[in-house]
Design brief:
This protein is α+β, with helices and mostly antiparallel strands. It has 2 domains: 246 residues, no CATH class; 187 residues, no CATH class. It is 55% helix and 16% strand. A 6-stranded mixed beta barrel has the order 3-4-9-6-8-7. Strand 3 and strand 4 form a beta hairpin. Helix 10 packs antiparallel against helix 15. The longest helix is centred in the last third of the chain and has 47 residues. It starts with a helix and ends in a 5-residue tail after the last strand.
Amino acid sequence: MRGSSWAEQLVQDLRYGTRTLIKSPGFAAIVLATLALGIGANTTIFSVANGVIFKPLPFSEPDSLYMLYERTPTSQQYSVSYPNFLDWQRENETFSSVAAFRKDNFVLTGQGRPERLHAAMISAGLLSTLGINPVIGREFRPEEDQLGSGGAALISEGLWRKKFGGSANVLGKTLELSGAAYEIVGVVPEALQTLKFWLGPAEVYIPVCQWRDPSFRERKVTTGMYVVGRFKPGKTESSANAELTQLAASLASAYPDANRDVGINLVPLKKVVAGGLEAMLFVLLSAVCFVWLIACANVANLLLAGSTGRMREFATRIAVGASQTRVILQLFTESILLALIGGGFGLLLALAGTHFALTLVPAGIPRAESIGIDGHVLLFTLAISVVAGILFGLAPVVRIRRLNLSESLKEGGRGSSGLRHRAQGMFVVTEVALALVLLVGAGLMIRSLVKLWECIPASIRKMCWCSTSRLRPRSWPMHRTFAWRFAS
């Protein structure tokens, strides 16, 4: 029965709060607009941060996946030569599996008008290393990833649906790519597009060993190939680094001309995929949090002013038997109702704001396909809406706690004017202080964003470079070797 009484009181308070808002449409519109802007800004930035940073990668046990780079005196994250990859794959004791990939382009013929396709070369076992399964068919077998073996190919889920209508009969069909015939053995899921910085928007995949250029097999030459590995159970990053250091030293001893100054750099895949945007997004989240706090202070001041005319109402309710706690719960219910409605409008703003935010950043922003409004974003919006309702609801509650019943009934609340002015003055000072902090913080944030943005493209370009000569000796100066650009 107690639960039923509580539920009835809540419904009654919600109805009363709704009627109060309807009676003051101008006041409600100002409050809701203020809340919508503050909550909408936070939701927009959080939706971006959620997609880029917080969401787990669409792979099995993603925390055990690491990128392996060649480390040289000029770069910590160099692409890997094919012979070194084979040695890492064969001799390491850290990973249960290691796979390689690089991007390329092919011309599709025999399907009507010749068509240029974005392609990728991948080693056998890449899908199983990442922990994803083909949509249909299978991935490459080890014997297919050998020079001179029969041509096998995988196609992307997008190409499968566009060219073949999503039919299972695609398996066994032949593609003619740049004059060579390849048999389709499987369809790769869209999850692999998470690696688009290295693979590009690949539509077709062939075994990496099928590349017949003899320079590909030279240890001194790298060709934009990257390596990913999955930790064995029980392995830690510190123990893995120690083992890989020994492996690099062994290869440097065996191949001093090519590997004298080459080490192995280990980086968590999730950190690499995020593209260095973590610091920038956390700075932006901090900035919009100030906006949210100022919105709460503004609404608190509005509610404090609005509650002046209701002091006699509150005093009357307490005089006829309502407890002070009951009146306070009514005020908190009204505040949270306002916050939830404002949060709903803020969510609508965030839907448009998220799309707009994506137009302001480079087209190659990491994990852009994961950015959007999902369950985590909805929970975040609900949480900051409820907290906002509690925060700005404290202003009128403070007045109720200090309400002089007899003076309020006799003078209609005029006796509490001193308290009202003191409380309003406190919130005005709070708003000015927050605005000043936000102004200073905004200046520092702009400086931080500029410095962060100067660094982020550099890290992205290292993953999205295009070589001026396709093949490059590791010793060539970097400024003479690459024409840097963003991935499209």
